[in-house]
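User: Structure tokens for this complex, please. No commentary.
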Amino acid sequence: MNVSSLSFLRKFGRIIKPKNIKSTKSIFGTRIFHKSFSSSTQSPPPAEGFMPGVSESKFIKNTSEDAMNNRELLEFGVLDGETKKMNLFQSINDAMRIALATDETAVIFGEDVAFGGVFRCTLGLSEMFGRDRVFNTPLTEQGIVGFAIGMASMGHTAIAEIQFADYIYPAFDQIVNEAAKYRYRSGGLFNVGGLLIRAPCSAVGHGGHYHSQSPEGYFAHTPGIKVVIPRSPIQAKGLLLASIRDRNPIIFLEPKILYRAAVEYVPIGDYELPLGKAEILKSGKDVTVVGYGSQIYVLENAIKMAEKKISGLSCELIDLRTILPWDVDTVVNSVNKTGRLVIAHEAPQTSGFAAEIATTITENCFLRLESPIQRVCGWDTPFPLVFEKFYVPDAIRCFDAIMEVVEF
Amino acid sequence: MIFACRNVWSRKTPLNILNRKTTRFWQFSTKAVKEEKVKFPGVTESYFTDKMQFIQSVNPIPTYRVMDRQGKVLDPAQEPQVSKEFALKIYKDMITLNILDLILYEAQRQGRISFYMTNYGEEAYIGSSAGLDSQDVIFGQYREAGVLLYRGFTIDEFMNQCYSNEKDYGKGRQMPVHYGSKKLNFQTISSPLATQIPQASGAAYALKRAGNKNCVMCYFGEGAASEGDFHAALNLAATMQCPVIFFCRNNGFAISTPAFEQYKGDGVASRGIGYGINSIRVDGNDVWAVYNVTKAARQLAVEENRPVLIEAMTYRISHHSTSDDSSAYRSKEEVENWMRFDNPIVRLRRWLENKNWWNEQEDKSYRTFIRKEILKSFSKAEKLQKPSITDLFNDVYDRPTPNIIIQREKLKKLIEKYPNNYPLKIFKNEGEDL
Ligand SMILES: Cc1ncc(C[n+]2csc(CCOP(=O)(O)OP(=O)(O)O)c2C)c(N)n1
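Assistant:
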């Protein structure tokens, strides 16, 4: 999110007596603030936080050649085209631009969407496509999703934005009882396949209870909807286009910490990435490590640490990408090879999606398992602001779990 | 000051329903009164008519004010009879809030606290806290720090919360500005919008059942009033006759969304009428108007168990929060004009000066004094440690459940194993008490 200019703030700050306040320095005085802080050029952290490791990730496509080296893109004829450097919010914007350009029925709406959205994902789209296709709604999530269901029931494509995943719950009834059951309850007479709900999710470093949640588990418990979480700009664009065009209602959760932190060379053409298909990011023979979204970069670091610690150790990292329906085969095949499994997500452990994966793997790979499956998750508490570092499944905790399954 | 829709409340007493002379809210219906009464169970006050008429609007609801923008009283009969001390308390709180906002906003810009939201331009809502009893219960949204200030929340208490330090009542768990105070009857702020509105109705019903002569005051924005919870709350309060005041701060924006995209009806006040609730619109930059309506609303709520809806018209001078840059959706000129020409603090100050209760010199020295106090408190709060890490696991339930105990143990072992991975030093007891 854009940060405001200090001069603007100061102007607005000085409500009555402008002359009393000359600068940051004079408000606070160096006596109170440490010198290094008293500079007015010091900038606050961005609203979506920092994720320092991402740019060094091996999974980030830093060059055009890197980006094009992707077999999943073969069939879309984008591999000989151009790429453009984009961060996550820009690639999401690009996907929505293509969706609107290629589908006359497609519309985008939600709170503050018209001016570009609080995370800038819809920037420029209302100017490009008009306010009847990209518009602000009144502040009502149940209304937004219900409205989207109605449009989709008429065969239109409705792309609804929920400003934060933490605020999706007013729409829970519309999603779980309506969207998810529309096809089934009508015997297939009606469906809302054109429905897509986007929402920024997960930790950002300072979000506290209500700007940090990862609610995928609630929706993964709902037959009839699909849940998708991308890890990078290239992935987001292809998965979002596929999700918009898929003939089922989909919840698309965007790890907001990656909006600016993840930058890749993204093919500018129209392409899709497969839903329900995990991706093996790194193959290995000893431990299977499963995650999705921003957690992938944490797991990458944890694996690096473990492989450094135990020479010869090799871990296989799988990005689930689609949470529902998830790619059981890829994970089962991997665990049948490695015999060990570590799963990580930020959402609380109890009844989290890791529990589902662990059970399925136990059912399918019981005789191959060399050690108990390890879950590394948020603790069973609300997401706590000041304790975030202790709460999230960070690299050390994931590393520790890998060591645990290896040394069992 | 008139509360719209008085007649709706006549429903309570069947005798009144028969009294055809009651002033009717719906202008068109004066003639219909003479027609046959509708007996269907879904309405109590309708008459048959042979005129087909769709009703798109009723008369616009007027905006009650006591002072003009220069602080001049329009009708002396409406001027509240308050003491100098009382008026100065309100004025000083408005100034304190303004300076507190300025300092904490800057602190966020410098990365010292993680988030902040100011009250710039809306300070006159403090008049509403002055119209309440201190035992009345408050359910807020987030832009009502002045209500707490008026009730006696100290600068230190504000600072401790914004710094998430060991003295924060919320134990560092929520973002800045999510204040709460048990002793001041102020329920802790929660970010999800509008959730507090039906809760306020329920709390009010509990007060009524307990026989307390108190009410609940519930604050929210005109944006939040679009949530389903708002409508549920008003309908419940009306049907259950709850002593609750719904106070809508209509500041023209919900982040970037202007009020005219938020609704097409006559603001938020008109909705109360639809629910059979006494409703009024007030100049939200006129502290005495806000004070008067709140006092009167409180009387209705407490004496007659009638919910009341107050819509206070104002303008959000500040960006929505530290995460927002409002120049992306409104002009600086617009904002500056509001600041310059309709400032609630200036208005009250002029009123005080007209009475010779305050002058330039006093103003200057009070500002200097309070700024110093705030800065003192600020640096004190900054130096305090964060809450104990055990507080990560407390209060999920009344006492820790087995899974939580196991997880706390697990974290303890992790910290022992990898002490360098965690910023233990900044937390009280440095993790020793886990
Ligand atoms: C349920 C929910 N949806 C969305 C948000 C994000 N959000 C926070 S404040 C805000 C605007 C609120 O506007 P309004 O109620 O008018 O109050 P104001 O900020 O103007 O005081 C939004 C959309 C939220 N906090 N909760």
